[in-house]
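Propose amino acids for all 253 sites.
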C-alpha cells in the first residue's frame, strides 16, 4: 500500500515538469514531508474547458481518499486511499474513474514500515523507510479522481462539491519489496498523454501504462521514527534513522 508520502515541489515547478496549461496561482499547498490520508495533494489531470470544450491539462489540489459519487458520506474516503491494480478496472468504486478520470500524483518518494523485533518487548517497533528513485527525479504516481456531491450543502455553495483521489498500487519489487509487499505504481513521462487522456478508455491498454516507479531503480533508507506521527512535518523526517538497538538491521544492511 501507500499510506504516507513526500511532496515538496512547488506548483510552479510541477506545472513545468508536467506541461500544465492551467492552474490557479492563488491555490497553494505547503511542501509536505508527511502527506497523510485526507490531506489535500497536488494532482495533474485533463478536463475540458467549460466554455470552449477544449481539453486542458490542469494542476489541482484534491483530497487524498477517493469518495465514489454514490457514497453517503465523505468519510469513506479515509479507507479508499489505494486502489489495487489487479482489480481497479472492475471494482464498482473505481471502474468508472479508471475509465474516465485518471490523474498523476507527483511525489518525491513514499514511506513504508517494517516491523522490527525488540528484545524484552512483546510488540515489535515500526521502523519507517523512505523509498525514492535513485536519480532523485520526481515520481508520477498513477491515480484516479472522482467528484462527490455533499447532499447537506446548498447548490450555490462551492463546498457542495468534493474532488478526491486514490493511488493505484501493485506487488512491490526491488527495494520497496524488501520493506512492504505493496507499492504505488507510476506513469513514465512518455505515457503521460495516454494516461491522462479522458477519451482513452480501453482498460487493458490503460493497464499496460502502469509501471514500477523509476523502472525499479529505487532506494530504501531507514529514516526518523518521527514520521510515525502525522502531526510531525519537515525535512528532518528524512534524516537517517538512529542505530538499531535490536541489531537486526534492515533492507539497507
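Proposal:
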Amino acid at each position: 500500500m501507500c499510506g504516507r508520502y513526500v511532496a515538496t515541489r512547488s506548483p510552479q515547478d510541477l506545472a513545468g515538469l508536467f506541461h500544465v496549461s492551467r492552474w490557479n496561482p492563488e491555490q497553494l499547498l505547503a511542501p509536505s514531508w508527511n502527506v497523510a490520508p485526507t490531506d489535500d495533494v497536488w494532482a495533474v489531470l485533463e478536463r475540458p474547458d467549460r466554455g470552449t470544450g477544449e481539453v486542458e491539462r490542469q494542476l489541482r489540489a484534491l483530497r487524498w481518499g477517493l469518495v465514489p459519487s454514490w457514497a453517503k458520506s465523505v468519510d469513506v474516503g479515509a479507507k479508499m486511499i489505494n486502489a489495487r491494480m489487479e482489480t481497479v478496472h472492475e471494482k464498482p468504486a473505481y471502474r468508472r474513474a479508471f475509465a474516465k478520470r485518471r490523474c498523476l500524483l507527483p511525489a518525491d518518494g513514499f514511506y513504508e514500515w517494517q516491523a522490527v523485533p525488540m528484545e524484552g518487548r512483546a510488540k515489535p517497533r515500526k521502523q519507517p523507510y523512505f523509498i525514492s528513485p535513485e536519480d532523485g527525479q520526481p515520481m508520477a504516481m498513477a491515480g484516479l479522481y472522482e467528484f462527490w456531491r455533499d447532499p447537506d450543502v446548498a447548490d450555490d455553495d462551492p463546498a457542495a462539491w468534493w474532488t478526491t483521489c486514490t493511488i493505484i498500487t501493485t506487488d512491490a519489487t526491488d527495494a520497496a519489496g524488501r520493506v512492504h509487499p505493496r507499492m504505488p505504481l507510476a506513469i513514465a513521462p512518455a505515457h503521460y498523454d495516454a494516461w491522462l487522456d479522458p477519451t482513452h478508455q480501453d482498460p487493458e491498454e490503460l493497464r499496460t501504462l502502469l509501471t514500477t516507479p523509476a523502472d525499479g531503480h529505487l532506494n530504501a533508507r531507514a529514516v526518523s521514527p518521527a514520521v510515525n506521527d502525522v502531526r510531525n512535518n519537515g525535512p528532518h523526517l528524512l534524516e537517517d534513522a538512529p542505530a538499531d538497538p535490536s541489531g537486526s538491521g534492515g533492507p539497507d544492511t
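The first strand starts at residue 5 and ends at 7. Residues 2 and 184 are 6 Å apart (CA to CA).
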